[in-house]
Amino acid sequence: MHQEPILVNVSLIGNKHINRGTPCEDASCTLSRDGVSVVCVADGAGGSKYTHARFGAKCAVECVADLLCKHFDAFYFENRESISRSLLVTAVHSSMADLLVEHELDGLERLSCTLLFVAVKGDLVLAGHIGDGMICRVSSHGISPLTLPANGENASSTYFVTFPNAQEYLRFIRTTTDDTHAFVLMTDGVEEMVYDSSTQLIRPVVARLAELAAKGKEEAEEELAATINKFVIGAGQNTDDASVGILYLPTTPTPDFSSLPDTKEKVTRNHEDTIRAVQMEWVPKVKHAQEILKKINCQKSADSDKVECSVDTAASSEETDVVETKQETPKETVPAHETKVANKETQEPEVPKERDSGKKVPLWAFLLMSGAFVTTAIALILVLI
After folding, report:
1. Of 259, 286, 314, which residue is a domain's last?
2. Over residues 20-45, mean pLDDT
3. Side-chain-side CA neighbours of residue 343 (13 Å)
4. pLDDT (tens digit, 9 = 90+) per residue, 227-276?
5. 278-316, pLDDT tens digit by residue?
6. Could you write out the DSSP letters of every residue in 104-115?
7. Residue 280 and residue 254 share a domain
8. Which strand (E) or helix (H) includes residue 47?
9. What is the pTM of this model?
10. d(CA 140, CA 19)
11. Domain end call among 197, 227, 259
12. Is 120 left (phi over 0), alpha (psi -120 to 50) or beta?
């Protein structure tokens, strides 16, 4: 029989906001109901444009905690991850709509925030993360990242759950509690102090913070708040708000703190190996595949309808130009604007142009009829990016 997890959460104002006389923009919550335990943290966006971010952060964590307690199985066992991600984001946006009326706001952008959550039911784990911050897994063997910070073009930009296309940036993880002692969630105010991105090292203190939960929720939250205030917020005059959430599994093996590493070698990266490079490498191969599929399906159509069908070289050339044009002007990543602020402009999806009646069946129709979904998916990604 499973013992109920111990849930701990604190959200503390940083010196940056104390000195400015502004409120804490972080939020966190825990909820246990119907055999499901959830911990959520969120970081409200900074900057003058995001006037009510603290309300958005609070709304987001409460909405997700309630949603996953009610519908854990629906989200965990749904294989179409895109639907799960879209539904969760839609639920958050819908919950925020009342705030727009209550505070007379002109859009969700005012409520911008990141979001991190972990939900556990029995042995099953459902986690999600959009934006910066971090989720760590503590086991008997040490500490490992479940999710890493996601930033835009630089460390001062990130992604928010309030984006119109937020589901594209939401990382969704389904796993189990096997070999797990605790999950530790943190906003960037804490993450920046305990995680070294150059080496991918998570400092051993994270495991020690998790172990505070063994004392029970009330005592653990008091000691956790004191520790964060002293060593994180007290580390400087411009420290950010700080939130930590812990989901602790009692009776599971505790790591050997003396064996946890506090140094690692720097990660080496080939900066020339980018998704852009992969896309360009595959452009000619995709074009070649398009022509093959077009000829095959054209022949199938001709055999079926007893009419002559030939490859439309003009159309083929036009589509090739589209591919090349798209590759020359790829979508931009979310650029930096202010601290923890990301550009909210999004591109409208392209609407395929209708072909005049009497012209040959378009390429997308041939591909759909052929059932060549893998090749089609690669082609569409290259065209749309």
Report:
1. 259
2. 96
3. 12
4. 999 999 999 999 999 999 999 999 999 999 988 988 889 988 898 899 88
5. 999 999 999 999 999 999 999 888 877 655 454 444 444
6. T-S-GGGG-B-E
7. no
8. none
9. 0.77
10. 41
11. 259
12. beta
Question: What are 20's two structure tokens?
Answer: 């400015």
* Residue tagged 């940036």 (tokens): 169
How is the beta sheet containing 115-121 ordered, strand by strand? 26-33, 36-43, 115-121, 124-130, 171-176
Q: State mean pLDDT over 332-345.
A: 42
Split at pLDDT 50, 70, 90, the class of 154 is low
| Residue 106: inside a domain | yes
- If asked whether residues 193 and 279 sit together in one domain, one would say no
pLDDT of 173 above 60: yes
Least confident stretch, 86-90, 212-216, 266-270: 266-270
Rounded Cα gap, residues 367 and 151, in angstroms: 36
Burial 264-278 (b: 16+ CB within 10 A, else e): eeeeeeeeeeeeeee
- d(Cα 135, Cα 28) in Å, to the nearest integer? 14
Given CA atoms 177, 68, 170, 79 in this order, what sign does their dihedral have? positive
* Same-domain pairing of 228 and 279: no
156 falls within a domain: yes
Q: Which domain holds residue 199?
A: 6-259
Residues 248 and 285 in one domain: no
Q: What DSSP string describes 158-177?
A: B--TTSTTGGGT-EEEEEE-
DSSP 8-state class, residue 147? E
- For 195, half-sphere exposure in the C-beta direction (CA atoms, 13 angstrom radius) is 23
| Nearest-10 crossing angle of helices 373-384, 313-328 | 50
Residue 157 in tokens: 């930009």
> What are the percentages of helix, strand and coil residues in the chain, rounded to 5?
45, 20, 35
User: Domain count of the chain?
Assistant: 2
